[in-house]
Amino acid sequence: MPIPTIEFKNNSVKIIDQTRLPVSYKIISCKNIKQLWEAIRTMQVRGAPALGVAAAFGVYLGIKDFRGNNNQFLKKLKSVIRYLGSSRPTAVNLFWSLERMNKLARKNRNKPVAQIKMMILKEAKKIFQEDRFVSRKMGDFGQGLIKNNDRILTICNAGALATADYGTALALIYKAKEKGKNIKVFACETRPLLQGARLTTWELKKHKIDTTLICDNMAASLMSQKKIDKVITGADRIASNGDSANKIGTYNLAVLAKYHHIPFYIVAPSSSFDLKLKTGKGIPIEQRSKEEVTVINNKRIAAKNVKVYNPAFDVTPHQLITAIVTEKGIIRPPFIKNIKRLLKNA
Amino acid sequence: MPIPTIEFKNNSVKIIDQTRLPVSYKIISCKNIKQLWEAIRTMQVRGAPALGVAAAFGVYLGIKDFRGNNNQFLKKLKSVIRYLGSSRPTAVNLFWSLERMNKLARKNRNKPVAQIKMMILKEAKKIFQEDRFVSRKMGDFGQGLIKNNDRILTICNAGALATADYGTALALIYKAKEKGKNIKVFACETRPLLQGARLTTWELKKHKIDTTLICDNMAASLMSQKKIDKVITGADRIASNGDSANKIGTYNLAVLAKYHHIPFYIVAPSSSFDLKLKTGKGIPIEQRSKEEVTVINNKRIAAKNVKVYNPAFDVTPHQLITAIVTEKGIIRPPFIKNIKRLLKNA
């Protein structure tokens, strides 16, 4: 039973405030685009697929009360889309979703404004439904990679809380469990914002999955003791050669997996691919505030005025990736050829 | 100017309470062996060399008020040593120091008890002075490895706060700076207890070293951008083949350094070698409480009742180590031969 990470009800986007988990479970209601922008920026809602869904409903929030003619409407839509795009730069699903709305509106630019508004809402609901379907498809394809008694390492939260349904990386685990496979998950806590500790352990416990929390620097120790069979993570943007941006620390795990001869899998919907990019070098990496690192639970943990390096993501080169699981199938090397084949011809 | 991490004054062991840094600087006074045991256990004092010094003074605290005959004294000494040895299992300096006290007392077992007590105090002071000397010698030998404008990554605190003087890994940096070299240090925060964030940034800022704090999972990202020239860490116990136990996360950095062709150096006094051990497999690894991981600054950050893996140390195999810097010189591979030559014949 997936968690209602995001819903659209009574002209509002309802989301679980993920900054409060696991200590408290609170649904917040974004009634306007500014509230939604803040929710994305402060990571009350996060996860590449969920950001795609949130941005789609965000467009509707941004235009639903607009009054004016068609030209003015398209201008308004453009500014709404630019505004939502300024919230977070790395996950491409957000831009994919905004572009889909943009195309829809331009295609129907001569229809009555009220009708375009309804089409936008319908499209957002469609993106939401697609995300649920896609999540389950990834789970179905990917669960075949998981063996009974596998011990799986993951980072950040690539679960139900990151999507509108079962998740990406964790969808494989939920589906494998449904097939009766016994699985142990090791969750990296994922500093600085601790999504692994706060969200993944909470979500996995809810699904009664055997879960062990570790600090990010403990992964190598487990691998050297042969206690990890697979590493499975999500992705925020994948270039056409398979290079994948994901939560900071993912590249670290990929290097460790290679050194210890452990398969490393990425799970992401086709909307996470950015085929305009040749390699991961072109992916913009969001730098976040130093306070995310120097202050934990309202208490300073470092010397005053120390410099901080705080990128939200890193890029794992395709050479370190065993396979990428999508809703259209599993992609294995050579990635350039196989990504093109599966995604462009689908 | 080194920081007075540990001192013996007025029959008390005075230490900086490292659990309070960097928010407050407080000297605590251990007047009896139980207080000292607690200070070691809770890591108010930590760092392999500093633990050696603390344990030596601890023996004196344990026997100074003893009244009885020589046989009773030796029995008391034995229980004092066993008690101090139960505080933390991994750093061998602690046991090395206790064994040195034991040998001294046994050699002088027929002398008056009062005289043996004075000899023990004198020996503890000698260990303290030796540690200061050894720290500077490691710095002198090791600084030659550091080039002008080097960007150095370190983990945990292997500085003045870990010894009675300049430190181990950080001694190289202080000595290189004294030689006029320009150095940038990247400090891994070192979860779960954040010694890198709390202690290393505080100490380096005091010494006016250019310091950047990162979360442990960001090291690979820096390395892939060619922003790290060397990794330098301390060690808590080194086997006769060079396998080195150090703070959890060190092995992770060693694998990353190898993958990115970055030299990886260990800095440790000869008292950190355990030549009875053939390999690192024999080093006992301390497992610490789950609350160190699940609670930060008094607030829970993970699902209730989640399992936790929390080893305080990991072991870096000698194959990943470029060289080991000691107070007797720099040891390079083949380690078995060269460790024996430098340490046994010294």
What's the gist of this structure?
The structure is a homodimer of 346-residue chains. Chain A is of the alpha/beta class and 346 residues long.
Tell me what you see in this structure.
The structure is a homodimer of 346-residue chains. The first copy, chain A, is an alpha/beta fold. Chain A folds into two domains: 6-137, Up-down Bundle (Four Helix Bundle (Hemerythrin (Met), subunit A)), CATH 1.20.120.420; 141-342, Rossmann fold (3-Layer(aba) Sandwich). Helix content of chain A is 40%, strand content 18%. Chain A has eleven helices and 17 strands. Chain A has helices spanning 33-41, 48-63, 70-85, 92-107, 113-143, 169-178, 195-206, 219-224, 250-259, 291-294, 335-344, and strands at residues 6-9, 12-16, 27-30, 150-154, 183-188, 210-214, 230-233, 237-239, 244-247, 264-267, 273-274, 295-296, 299-300, 307-308, 313-316, 323-326, 329-331. In chain A, a hairpin with a 2-residue loop joins strand 12 and strand 13 (299-300). In chain A, helix 3 (70-85) packs antiparallel against helix 4 (92-107). Chain A is globular. The model of chain A has no long low-confidence stretch (mean pLDDT 96). At the A-B interface, helix 7, strand 6, helix 8, helix 9 and strand 13 of A face helix 7, strand 6, helix 8, helix 9 and strand 13 of B.
| Spatial ordering of strands, largest sheet of chain A | 6-5-4-7-10-16-17
Give the quaternary arrangement of the chains: homodimer
- Unreliable sequence segments of chain A: none
* SSE string of chain A, helices as H and strands as E: EEEHHHHHEHEHEHEEEHEEHEEEEEEH
Beta content of chain A: 15-25%
Percent helix range of chain A: 40-55%
Number of strands of chain A: 17
The secondary structure category of chain A is alpha/beta
The coarse overall form of chain A would be: globular
Mean pLDDT of chain A: 96
CATH class of the largest domain in chain A: Alpha Beta
Number of helices of chain A: 11
Determine the CATH superfamily of the largest domain in chain A: Translation initiation factor eif-2b, domain 2
Biggest interface = A-B, 58 and 58 residues
What number of domains of chain A?
2
Q: What's the N-to-C terminus distance of chain A?
A: 29 Å
Largest sheet of chain A: 7 strands, mixed
CATH topological fold name of the largest domain in chain A = Rossmann fold
The CATH architecture of the largest domain in chain A can be named as 3-Layer(aba) Sandwich
Radius of gyration of chain A equals 20 Å
